[in-house]
Amino acid sequence: MVFLNFLARRLLFQVFVLFGVLVITFLISHVVPGDPALLLAGPRASPEVVAKIRSDLGLDRPLYRQFLIYVLGLVRGDLGTSVLTRRPVARDIAERFPATFELVTLAMLLVAIVGIFFGVVSAVYKERWVDQVTRVLGIAGASMPIFWLGLLALYLFYTWLGWVPGGGRIASNIDPPTRITGLYVIDSVLTRNWPALRSSLEHLILPVFVLSFASVASILRLTRACMLEVLNQDYIRSAQAKGLPQRRIIFIHALRNALLPTITVLGVTYGELLQGAVVTETLFSWPGMARYAVSSMTYLDYPAIMALTLVSAVIYTLINLLVDVLYGAIDPRVRYD
Amino acid sequence: MRAQGLGLGILACVLSAFSLAAKPPSDVLVFGSSVEAETLDPHDTVDNFAWRAIYYCYDRLVKFRGGTTEIEPALALSWEISPDGTSYTFHLRQGITFIDGAPFNAEAVAYSFRRLIELGRAASGTVEGILDVSGIEVIDEFTIRFVLNFPFIPFLGTLATNQASIVSPGVEQHGPADHGASWLAEHSAGTGPFYVKEWRRGDVIILARNENYWGPKPALREVQIRYIPEAAVLRELLEKGEVDMAEVLTDEQLDALAGVSGVTVFEAPSFSVCRLYLNCTKPYLSDVRVRQAISYAIDYEGIIYAVTKGHAVQMRGPIPQGMWGHDPSVPQYTRDLTKARALLAAAGYAKGFRLTMLIDPGIPAWVDIATIVQANLAEIGISVDIVGYARPTMRAMIDRSEHEISIGYWTPDYPDPDMFAWYWFYSKNRGLGGNRSFYTNPRMDELAVGQRAEPDPNKRLEMLKELQRIAVEDAVYVYLYQATYRTAMREWVKGYVYNPMLLYMPNFDTISKDYGAG
Questions:
Q1: In 3-state terms, what secondary structure has residue B54?
Q2: A324: left (phi over 0), alpha (psi -120 to 50) or beta
Q3: Alpha-carbon gap, residue B160 to B413, rounded angstroms
Q4: Which of B1, B132, B183, B226 is the best substitution to test chain A (most A C-beta atoms within 10 A)?
Q5: Interchain CB distance below 8 Å, A285 and B233
Q6: pLDDT at position B517
Q7: For residue B1, is pLDDT > 80?
Q8: Which A residues 186-215 touch B at CB under 8 Å?
Q9: What's the pTM?
Q10: What is the DSSP string of B409-457?
Q11: Alpha carbon distance B100, B173 (integer Å)
């Protein structure tokens, strides 16, 4: 009950946060000088065409009315029509979001599993060769720009070795699986479309690896540091003195305590991965949201910018909520109040 | 971490057993593009990358003959033009149906042009002020007449371009409020050799052959236009043969590809030009001697080399070479600092002054050009501040005459010098309309307006010659360069025909593939 109460309050609070985000984004994107009508009107825009487009888009109305119209539409579930693609923004995003979600979520899973596991291993085998290797990789991950790493990986694994495809979500001679969730991996499992599953997994390997590399490194170093601190504490020594198996001490007693900072950072990592997706999607011709975001910024496509910000804000606040919930699950001292 | 590396290695080995990088079938053309289309409505966009996808999904009344800008019949079998040049009567082909099953007739033609005009989008620019809805007359089921507001000489040429695509009246059922615009933005409804089968956003546009096409059947069953945003990756895909044709690549990449066996780099002159705008309403620049001095100070060869690696020629006046009406005898500015300094001194600015140059730093070529212009003008005492703004802002500033020097590309929509003469110099087009130097000259207005209505080609040529002479004398723009069009494809792509009016729009209808050819 206390937990549900906590959840309800947090969700209610979120609505206010999102409204704030909405107001700020609307103001910023509309105050920037420039006019999407001028871009839409083409290279040789006559004033008549520009005026017609501006009134079609509602840009000739006062700012507060534009905002009011937008919010009223939003309440009805209408995200507006994209200036650039001339389609409902909701459809544009629905089509692209699953691709980004699939990429970023798999990268996130890789970050969590690989980062935490090897963080623990390198703390336990401190100053041994495992630790040295992960340290080098940690520095490499923190200092290699995604763009460079991505090109390098493409050159090595696609051009030179030919092990993975050169980009896209699925091979050009294979039809995508029937759309259920929009996530190719899940849809192809659900429809038992094995060729599609294989092809989409092949296409995911390199982008997921490249996208997660930097974050794996930082989570790994963080987990290692926290683990080292915890492993030096008295209760661990007691556990060892009692003769508990080493594996149990590390993964049950120590890790649970060392995990709190890592969970916090993992929440932020999802945001970082979304950012990194812009470059990754470009490099790997990944038909996701990030490319759409870039072009909507370039063209001041207001409805798309608003909707994308809203989607990111929702994801971000949900992840934060999840992090808070996880705190309680990991640390019984944390109370939902 | 070693364990992870090992895991990846094993995974990769397993994967290598699969057959990746399969060549597409020989009747499927994979076209890789680093630019994605935004909308597919021919009556909306003027974007060549959108036109590439739809040009062969539609037919027009007339078409370009092969690689030339000459006009030949398409949906219209024949036509008559009234002696005063204002009335065009077209006799239409019979027995054709649209891909949606609607019959093709004069009503459909009338519908298409009404739709173009009433939507009032960028594409309508070519008929704006020339043809009104009231000028469209259906004579009988297969005869249509257009009555123009004035004798517009390039009219026939505009009918071969994408804006003049004939769209099925059936699109109306997808939303009468906007003439089905949001539906047509991602579908096609034409009589052409292909149709839009599927558009996976950010990924691929798939064109399928129209099996009921009235004309010669295309060899290709399917064309996949794949969006590969990173040009370096696109080049790799072409080298591996996973894409058959690729655009847009950088000059460095094209130079590298020229040495790859199995890949052809095609190169031909285009009508696409680059010019600097010298805002004639600003202090200093309002003086013709200052504009001439700037034109003499620019290092044209240096710019052409730095920006295009030599794949361009310096413009000679405003009308590009190869286009009817171009005057090869018009004087051309070359770098002459002595003359430039003398002109500045004569204007009373021997000590120089400051100017700003507005660019969009997102276009690397513009950054290079601005830097060279800055260095060139510094040599005659003009110090240039380069100001960068994102494209929407830059365009808004140019429209409001807030720039001093700025820059832009220009590619004609229809094969006629009118695209340069009228748009660039007519005073009513000041701003984004085309006259981006905000130039006003009553004589030039007469010439710009007069030439487009002059039915006698000889008289028209004389007018265009005078216009080009004044345009150079008055140094309205800095006429930088006329770009060379370059594109890369596999050698097994056969029958490619380049048409300078259809940049980035390869002839999918007559291209074929022959893997035996390498």
A1: helix
A2: alpha
A3: 10
A4: B1
A5: yes
A6: 59
A7: no
A8: 198, 202, 205, 209
A9: 0.88
A10: EE--SSSSTHHHHHHHH-GGGBTTTSBTT----HHHHHHHHHHTT---H
A11: 12
